Amino acid sequence: GIVPRHRPPPSDMGRGLTLLLLPLALLAAPVQAEGGGPATEEVKIEVLHLPEACSPKSKKGDLLNAHYDGFLASDGSKFYCSRTQNEGHPKWFVLGVGQVIKGLDIAMMNMCPGEKRKVIIPPSLAYGQQGYAQGKIPPNATLIFEIELYAVNKGPRSVEAFNQIDKDSDKKLSELEISQYLKEEFARDGKKRHPSVHDEILADIFKKNDHDGDGFISAKEYNVYQHDEL
């Protein structure tokens, strides 16, 4: 299981964990910048606060819990604030797998719980030439984020998580095993859900993960985040 140092309320915990097998859009589905932009463009990182005991450091595939504010570099206006969304719960997301814009995936590597950073992200690593109208982000916008990281956990697609679901240890996940796992997760956060929700999520998991269609999710199929151990 995933036990953060600061236990968030159960509902938030459940949300973080169901993310386990489901992608989650944070600021929005990131837009691939066309042409990649000039090679000189990179994320500028300023560390505002570093705790004395700085570990563990975040790495690709870890599950992070963070608050952040987003500003437009052009006029300093705030376009996003996680504290005003979702009842103010910090956001959970998996690092380095494209659940957030590329610039944030880069900006939050090697960061430890309690650390605060201010980062400047060029358009090619954010929303590119399209911008993102719904998010009030104009085309070719440089973005500034102030980030506070709360927790760094073993990522959902880790070997530990796979072995936990794979009850018979045959190195593949059956529909029954994942169904059982979802039941346990849902029981853990105690929310009332219609039974159809369980079936929909299960079907979705297989549609997205069972690439060869054999009715099982193999270690390789499950392990989309390319950890080395499996």
Note the quaternary state here: single chain
- Strand count: 8
* Tertiary shape: globular
Radius of gyration, in angstroms, nearest whole number:
19 Å
Structure annotation, total helices: 6
Content of β-strand: 15-25%
Mean pLDDT, as a whole number? 78
Can you tell me about this structure?
This protein has 230 residues and is an alpha+beta fold. The chain folds into two domains: 44-154, Chitinase A, domain 3, CATH 3.10.50; 159-222, EF-hand (Recoverin, domain 1), CATH 1.10.238. The protein is 24% helix and 20% strand. It is built from six helices and eight strands; from the N terminus they run H-E-E-E-E-H-E-E-H-E-H-H-E-H. The protein has helices at 10-18, 102-107, 159-165, 175-189, 195-209, 219-222; strands at residues 44-49, 63-72, 78-81, 91-94, 116-121, 143-153, 172-173, 217-218. Strands 1, 2, 3, 4, 5 and 6 form a six-stranded antiparallel sheet that branches. A two-stranded antiparallel ribbon has the order 7-8. Strand 2 (63-72) and strand 3 form a beta hairpin. The longest helix has 15 residues, at 175-189. The chain is globular, with a radius of gyration of 19 Å.
